[in-house]
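Dear colleagues,

For the upcoming journal club I promised to circulate an example of a predicted protein-ligand complex. I picked one with zinc ion because it came up in last month's discussion. The inputs are reproduced below in full, followed by the predicted structure.
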Amino acid sequence: MALSKFKLCPACGEHNPPALLECKNCETDLTGVRLVDEDICQPQAR
Ligand SMILES: [Zn+2]
């Protein structure tokens, strides 16, 4: 199974496709936002 990457909007927390340069929800500039994996959003069972 492949992890999909996305850009997490720093303003609203929207998950945006990597190709987007602006948040699809609030139009915040995402050019400086690093791609993250879905994996980091999983609750850590520690
Ligand atoms: Zn946003």
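Two points we might discuss: The two ends are 23 Å apart (CA to CA). Residues 7 and 13 are 9 Å apart (CA to CA).

See you all on Thursday,
B. R.
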